[in-house]
Amino acid sequence: MNRKTITIILLILVLLFFGFYYQNVFSKTVAEVNIVEKNIEYVIVKFEDGSEKKVNVNDQETNSINTGNKYFVVIYENLLRKPFFHEIKAI
Fold it and tell me: Three-state DSSP class for 67?
């Protein structure tokens, strides 16, 4: 093998590593949820399977969310940040 082939193989391995790393570090949840509890800093959402999750919110989201209502949400979380809403729509 020549030097160019080895470089390409190493580049592909590095890209595969970062692809798997990205999948394991970042998590995306898309679901229909009920808002159980609302606070200034966070809300507790209840999924259809009965599990609950505490999600960080900002002031604008807090004002537009009502306890007891159903919402379609996209929640992102990773190793560096707690769960937060990427998208939220009332149903």
Answer: coil
75 with 85: CB under 8 angstroms? Answer: yes
Distance CA 6, CA 63 (A): 56
CA dihedral 54→77→27→43, nearest 10 degrees, is 30
Structure tokens at 22: 């990205």
pTM beyond 0.85, yes or no: no
DSSP state, residue 40: S
Average pLDDT (79-83) is 82
- Tell me how many degrees the CA angle 53-46-74 measures, rounded to the nearest 5: 70
